[in-house]
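This part of the workshop introduces the protein records we will be handling. To make this concrete, we reproduce a full record directly below:
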Amino acid sequence: MDSTAPPASWGALRSFMKDTCGVWLSEDQHYLMEARLAPVAKMLNYSSIDTFVLDACKPGAAKQVTSPLIDAMTTHETSFFRDGPFWRAMQDLVLPKLGVLDPGATKPLRIWSAACSTGQEAYSLAMLLDENYPSLAERTTIIATDVSEGVIELARRGTYSVFEVNRGVSAPRLLKHFEREGGNFRVKDKHRKRVVWQPQNLITGWPPGEGFDIALVRNVLIYFPEETRQLVLKKVRASIRPSGFLGIGSSEFIAGSPISPGWYPAR
């Protein structure tokens, strides 16, 4: 199979990823196209990466071609309870400020986990609430979205390898929240039922609703150019209640005064 892609296909891919997903590929990242798309092109019976890319990136291309390309070219790095201080700040600062922990509180909690990848973040939310605030967990809705329909399907299944659960899941949590499934572990039904999974494009689409108390857009803004980053933040913030909070990656920074690394008031 010819893995040498002429400039036309690389330029088409860069434009497609920027316009479709907001992902900016620098000129020196040409190797990513060959490394990530060669297996996909072969699987789809294309004679070369170049032919596959040009076909997938043309206007009106079939979803059966564009979706595998997006799946392969977007980053799906994630883990359970990623960045411990972020989750502690959610418990100690964010939830108390929302009033959902007040004695006798009945207010529902709405959370959006954007760019959720294979689901570890959304399930971490469900587990944390179940462990510490079971009555709040019962009245919480978690909507999890990602541009990749492939990873959404993986997340919906909630099945993870030993390697994946070892990244962030303690032994007590593994026993409490997972069931064995062959050589893997599956998130228990009660958590899977609390998460609504939806394909969603942060660039070309709109938030999956409004009135969220918390929206998490973690470790994805770093892949966007500044103009796209501001567009996404504007749309996300508009979906959050004025009294709600935005969570981003603890190493990411946006304008405003954080209440803790990674946590910002919505307004």
Summary: The chain has a mean pLDDT of 92. The domain at 84-265 is CATH 3.40.50.150 (Rossmann fold). The chain is about 45% helix and 15% strand.
